[in-house]
Write a structure and sequence with these properties.
The protein has 205 residues and is an all-alpha fold. The protein is 74% helix and 0% strand.
């Protein structure tokens, strides 16, 4: 009996994961969210369903709805690493509730201390708290583990504020080379008034 229950649980998790992947690739996020809501209505309290819904609301621009769902999820399942990190990061990125954001990300790190995206979140909340040296330390660690565009955007911005502007540009180049259309990286360099052509040159070793 237990094996059958576990098999059913695994099948449901696989189904929702696959559904989430499909809808997350849709360019029409509102439509994708509507589809996911209908498909998952009977299991709306399942942690994987709650997390997927939260991320779809985030993509749809409804950060308030995302935050409400994630708060409910971490209350229901305090060891849900992705929810802890997503909620903490979203607060840090919005520059609000920074002490709470720090505590959420710290909790996520206790469960997944080597995860580069959680390490990135810790660096970003330190940046929002104005602790640039600590931010640099954490973001360098995240970047060394996974030098993707989003992490390079954060790491480069901290270097920029530390007046290491050439180093920042080199970091951004690496991210731009991997994902030239990454929205977070493009927004960062635009906000800091860095010409995009500066990211197209050769990467210095």
């Amino acid at each position: 009996m237990n094996e059958k229950i576990q098999e059913k649980k695994n099948t449901l998790e696989s189904f929702y994961n696959e559904t989430n992947v499909l809808v997350s690739k849709s360019n029409n996020v509102a439509s994708a969210l509507d589809i996911f809501e209908k498909v998952s209505r009977r299991d709306s309290s399942r942690p994987e369903v709650m997390y997927s819904r939260a991320m779809l609301y985030y993509r749809n621009g409804d950060k308030g709805k995302m935050e409400n769902i994630l708060r409910s999820l971490v209350k229901k399942k305090p060891d849900h690493v992705q929810a802890l990190n997503a909620l903490g990061y979203s607060m840090a990125d919005a520059n609000k509730n920074l002490r709470e954001a720090f505590d959420l990300i710290k909790a996520a790190l206790t469960f997944a201390p080597q995860d580069p995206h959680i390490i990135d979140s810790m660096g970003w909340v330190y940046f929002r708290l104005g602790q640039l040296e600590m931010a640099e330390e954490w973001l360098e660690k995240a970047f060394n583990r996974q030098p993707d565009a989003e992490i390079s955007a954060h790491y480069g911005e901290v270097l920029w504020h530390l007046l290491r502007k050439e180093d920042a540009i080199q970091i951004w180049k690496i991210g731009f080379n991997k994902e030239p259309n990454n929205a977070i990286l493009l927004e960062t360099v635009d906000r800091l008034k860095v010409q995009i052509d500066k990211l197209k040159g050769n990467i210095q070793n």
